[in-house]
Amino acid sequence: MHTTALVMFSGGQASTPCLAHALTQYERVETLGFDYGQRHSVEMTQRLRVLEKIRTDFAQWAPKLGDDHVLSLDVLKQIGGSSLTDDVAFAMQADGLPNTFVPGRNLLFLTLAGALAYRRGLQVIVTGVCETDFSGYPDCRDDTMKAMQLALNLGLERRLRIATPLMWIDKAATWQMAHTLGGEALVQLIVQETHTCYEGTRDVLHDWGYGCGTCPACDLRAKGWQRWKQVQAV
After folding, report:
1. Could you give the number of structural domains in the chain?
2. I want to staple 200 with a disulfide (CB 3.0 to 4.6 A). Which of 40, 93, 228, 232 is the partner?
């Protein structure tokens, strides 16, 4: 039986419900963030705010929430070519993927998460990747997660599990998941403190949270919020 987990935690709309989910499932939960030279580096500040609020506002989870870790991956910025690491406009590439795709990002994230889990004695890696309502990133697919789990188990000689609570649900269902796990308090924490906007904008607060309102991440978040509210109103 799995009792410990490492949550890949960016401090965004997806990873925060994943953290809440892990805190309901496991006895000890640690978090891991990555500084890879992302343009929306404000998420590195906001993720600490979210962790602080969970410790102070959710008494049922606070005792389970352990150490937070941050690893540097500026090699991804050195490789460049992505609108998440370079100051270029968001656009579609010739291969049909948006230029927000950072090639190899999640593969590196999971490899390092596996190494950290090995050292920390953690059994499950929780990640907020999703194949249902996403931008087409190949490193978010269920097949990729299964392949990475196999590779980590073989390469580390450990029975690590990669858990993907959001894989088969859309953004509206992600809002509902947050509400189910932590009520209105968690929903408002996500609205007010999490960060998803690729532009790093935090000067405009929408119903669904801070953001520019036009980048792909904001568009997904806003549409998910609207669909969730429509379902609630029925």
Report:
1. 1
2. 40
